[in-house]
Amino acid sequence: MRSLLVISAGLSQPSSSRRLADMLAEATRAKISARGEGAQIDVIEVRDLAFELATAMTDQTAQTPLLARAKQQVADADGLIAVTPVFQGSYSGLFKTFFDTLEPHGLDNLPTIIAATAGSSRHALILDYALRPLFNQLHANVVPTGVFQAIEDLGTPEGERIAARIERSAIQLADQIVVPQDRVPGIAGDLTGLGGRSTVRLAKENFIPLDKLLNGYGK
């Protein structure tokens, strides 16, 4: 069973960010299931952590149990879907604050879809000038296809193209979480069913120090 974590920074309830996040999560779960694996979807609504986020940023000794649980969910995740509404031309402050509170290397090698919502398609470049640099800085494995959805695009041909991008990004995320079985294994051997963080964890578990590998040689 793979763990798929959704982080939504929408403020209203329901929010367009959460609706997009749910579509991405269900599409990804379907692609993972097609690879013979199950996927458990967990959701973090960042607005529910607003008070603890403010507390954590101003008092590092304060108890923030909800935030601590959210951080553990990030640490345990095999894949991430991160969705933010656009505020002042970029990701929301609440969205950024959540990632500011994570431990260093908290997103290392984590397969990730980035997505954003707004009222107008004029903000579509947020994926490349704001979100992708942020998650690259955090060392996440961001899939090539990000998803931007504008309210004005719903029910239009552009809305249909967005649906196709959702499918494409879901395939790319599933490919990182569960390696497709039609891939040729490399020198590391058969890594079928492993990808992203799972591959890194396996490499660490199977690591053999050089001195042990050379033990007995040259004698």
UniProtKB/TrEMBL annotation:
Enzyme class: oxidoreductase
Keyword Flavoprotein: yes
Record's keyword annotation contains Oxidoreductase: yes
Gene Ontology terms, MF aspect: oxidoreductase activity
Domain NADPH-dependent FMN reductase-like: 4-148
Tree of life domain: Bacteria
Keywords: Flavoprotein, FMN, Oxidoreductase
Classification via InterPro entries: CE1759_FMN_reduct (IPR023932), Flavoprotein-like_sf (IPR029039), FMN_Rdtase-like_dom (IPR005025), NAD(P)H-dep_FMN_reductase (IPR051814)
EC numbers, comma separated: 1.5.1.-
NCBIfam families, A to Z: LLM_duo_CE1759
Name the record gives this protein: FMN reductase
Source organism phylogeny: Bacteria, Bacillati, Actinomycetota, Actinomycetes, Mycobacteriales
